[in-house]
Specification:
Shape: globular
Oligomer: single chain
Strand content: 15-25%
Helix content: 25-40%
Number of helices: 11
Number of strands: 12
Largest sheet: 10 strands, mixed
Order of helices and strands: HEEEHEHEEEHEHEHHEHEHHEH
Structural class: alpha/beta
Distance between the termini: 31 Å
């Protein structure tokens, strides 16, 4: 036989030499929940091993991440008070704004990304301003832009709108530029599906809608071409990074979007994916370490450049061990 593919599988050295997919610790982003109050480090019931931190204790998590080599976080805020227009999202003393100032002062080596949305801050749990029982798109844009600017003022290195309103990237880019934050990039949740995989996150952030669902603004999971259209629109509006969310069941979209746009591609392995792995591992049905590795490599193999995952520390350890990378 002339062609013997096994020649390049014969040892660990040659396997790593010809490896097609590389995983880099610097491409990992860890999603982190910050909550009002003091001396809080409480485990999230539906996400074993994940915690809500008050600002005064968020350093514990940041130090662990830095020790593992993970230098980027995505901050999600959980306010004490919610109202119809989510005013704590853009308040100067809001929970994310305070977390940003603390992290910038004490952990300047961390790259701080903020989720820009209204759902955690509104009393009704929807991602914008309501008109009757529907989210009013254009009025919501004003608040999203205001939120992004407030985050930049507090020290955000990057903002990431997750609301799925039409035109939000253009509105945020214009507001940031007008406020003098021309260097702050936007990572758009451009291809975000209305997914059942978000369940544990809504428990973690207290962001479940009080009525209805989010199908009028998040995407129908039957659609692929629509996702490509959303990605192209957001790139045209000024998005610097395009995200696909969730990751595991949407790897085809990671590949399609990668082929359609010229920005880096991010994929978010969401709370439901994390919870399923933890639950199955706890029952002894799967090898948790190997599953984490396969899931991560699959995302990069599909074309992602950036991976948002609650397993960021574990993946960093797998890279260090040479198990993946």
């Amino acid at each position: 036989m002339i062609k013997r593919p096994r020649r390049l599988r014969g040892s660990e050295n040659v396997r790593r030499l010809v490896r097609e997919t590389r995983v880099d610790v610097h491409s990992l982003i860890y999603p982190m929940f910050v909550i009002e109050g003091e001396n809080i480090c409480e485990e999230i019931p539906s996400m074993e091993g994940q915690y809500r931190y008050s600002v005064d204790r968020m350093g514990e998590c940041l130090e662990e991440l830095l020790a593992a080599g993970v230098t980027s976080v995505m901050l999600f805020g959980i306010p004490k008070v919610k109202d119809e227009v989510g005013s704590q999202a853009y308040a100067e003393d809001g929970i994310v704004q305070r977390a940003l100032r603390y992290a910038k002062e004490h952990y300047p080596q961390m790259y701080l990304i903020t989720d820009v949305c209204m759902c955690e801050y509104t009393s009704h749990g929807h991602c914008g301003v309501l008109c009757d029982h529907d989210v009013e798109n254009d009025e919501t844009l004003k608040l999203l832009a205001k939120t992004a600017v407030s985050h930049a003022k507090a020290g955000a290195d990057m903002v990431a709108p997750s609301d799925m309103m039409d035109g939000r990237v253009a509105a945020i880019r214009a507001a940031l530029d007008e406020a003098g934050f021309t260097k702050v990039p936007i990572m758009s949740y451009a291809v975000k599906y209305a997914s059942a995989f978000y369940g544990p996150f809504r428990d973690a952030a207290g962001s479940a809608p009080s009525f209805g669902d989010r199908k009028t603004y998040q995407m129908d999971f039957h659609n692929a071409r629509e996702g490509v259209k959303e990605a192209i629109l957001d790139e045209e509006e000024g998005a610097d990074i395009i995200m696909v969310k969730p990751a595991m069941s949407y790897l085809d979209m990671v590949t399609k979007v990668k082929e359609a746009v010229n920005t880096p591609i991010a994929a978010y392995s969401v709370s439901g994916e994390y919870a399923m792995v933890k639950a199955a591992a706890k029952m002894g049905w799967i090898d948790e370490k190997r599953i984490i590795a396969e899931m991560a490599v699959a995302v990069y193999r599909a074309g992602a450049d950036i991976y948002l995952t609650y397993f960021a520390k574990e993946i960093a350890e797998l890279i260090r061990e040479g198990y993946i990378g």
